[in-house]
Amino acid sequence: MSAGHGHGHATATGQHRGILAGTLAISLTIAAVQIFGAVITGSLALLADAGHVLADSGGVAMALGATLLAARPAAGRRTFGWARAEILAAAINGLILTGMGGYILIQGIRRLIEPGEIEAGGMAIFGAIGLIGNLIGVALLYRARTASLNMRGAFLEVATDSATSVGVLVAALVIALTGFTRADAIVSLLIGAIIIPRALKLLREAANILLEAAPDDVDLDNIREHILELDHIQDVHDLHVYTVTSGLPVLTAHVVVDPDCFHDGHAPQLLDKLQTCLAGHFDVEHSTFQLEPVGHTDHEHPTHT
After folding, report:
1. What is the DSSP string of 198-221?
2. Do 15 and 64 touch, CB atoms closer than 8 A?
3. Last residue of a domain, which of 210, 232, 261?
4. Are residues 271 and 147 located together in one domain of the fold?
5. Could you give the CA distance from residue 162 to residue 147 in angstroms, rounded to a whole number?
6. 10-residue stretch averages of pLDDT, the chain, 305 residues long
7. What is the pTM of this model?
8. CA distances to 62, 65, 152, 155 from 148, in Å
9. Does residue 240 share a domain with residue 164?
10. How far apart are CA 174 and CA 162, in angstroms?
């Protein structure tokens, strides 16, 4: 058997720790300002936007904390270190966003039925402050948004916050010009409708990683075909591909080879070829292969496939 590489490297999210810290500081400031503004103006849309930002801040904070844990080296029973902590943070973030979205929807419906008094001028001022802060956050996260699941989640959170801040400004304008205070509730409902699908998507992706499902961009049949194309390989089974954390895919497989490979020196060469093939064609650097002769599967547990 052979393992491709060690685990002691920075995770994809950990490489952008400074960006996350800056984004977190901006988001917490925005949330505090908007909560204050919601109390003064009576705007549910501002409170919804603040709640959304606050939930997103919690997600960014967990992602940031997870990178500190993920950077710890593998030791003892934790053979991959704390890398999976990033995915746990993403799952908790998704749960928080789902709850926040549900609360906003319920309160928005109540405000549609019984609208309250809203001070449109103050609502517009605090909405503008939120928009400016969120746009700064978007600029910070833009280049790093594809680095990992948590970085993408953080970017989407701040980008959505920017959109909801625009909605707050539009509602404030409508109220100022027409006196239609239900615009505040309508924007709140739109914010809730934006939050929930995104939160569920984040939950689904995190759950797939935690359940060790094959990544969406990995074709197991294609991998199997590439392995079988190598000389001296007769079959491959127990092929598993999963993700420990964003940027760290892992592959394991049992490979049936010609019997002579165990006597004429081909086995080490095959291991090198297998790992080079996986790293080159499928960007899987951590791979473990069990080379076995024909008939070995007769002795394996029935759950092996």
Report:
1. HHHHHHHHHHHHHTTPPPTT--HH
2. no
3. 210
4. no
5. 21
6. 43 64 88 90 87 76 68 61 71 82 87 87 92 89 71 78 88 92 90 83 83 75 83 84 74 84 77 76 72 67 53
7. 0.67
8. 14, 15, 6, 11
9. no
10. 19
